[in-house]
Write a structure and sequence with these properties.
Number of strands: 8
Structural class: alpha+beta
Largest sheet: 6 strands, antiparallel
Strand order of the largest sheet: 1-2-3-8-5-6
Oligomer: single chain
Length: 144
């Protein structure tokens, strides 16, 4: 799906794949909003300072979720979760080297706040919901 290609591109660079002509004008606006958000994030946060695989990345498969985090050394950036065919509604994202501090987390997919978490909570694992209408969750992390 185009959502998955958009989220995958966030892990590798500024290229977004897909044929926009196949989308309705409303969907084009929605994806355009996400692309503008990502471009702005990349100019304000050095997300290339850290890449962390999440979930079942050592043995990937359709039955398990996986994902990644792209973060600055200060802990700001994004986490992308791919539900795949796992049917999970939330996952625990654990990043053992997360820096100290307080961070606000929001879903880019829905615009909803997920909450505020400490670096210590991220090191132990933070529950991130996957919106039922999406196969992917993209979350933005900013210092509180």
């Amino acid at each position: 799906a185009i959502e998955e290609r958009l989220a995958t591109a966030m892990g590798s660079g500024p290229l977004f794949l897909g044929d926009l002509r196949k989308l309705t004008p409303a969907k084009q606006d929605w994806y355009g909003e996400k692309i503008r958000w990502f471009k702005k994030l990349r100019t304000t946060v050095p997300i290339n300072q850290g890449f962390f695989p999440l979930g079942n990345w050592r043995q990937p498969g359709a039955a398990a979720w996986d994902g990644f985090a792209r973060l600055s050394r200060q802990g700001e950036g994004l986490i992308v979760i791919f539900k795949n065919e796992s049917k999970v509604r939330e996952v625990s994202a654990e990043i053992p080297t997360y820096p100290a501090g307080e961070f606000k987390v929001r879903s880019v997919m829905t615009g909803d706040s997920i909450g505020s978490f400490s670096g210590k909570q991220f090191r132990k694992g933070v529950a991130l919901p996957i919106p039922p209408q999406h196969d992917v969750q993209v979350v933005e992390i900013r210092k509180a």
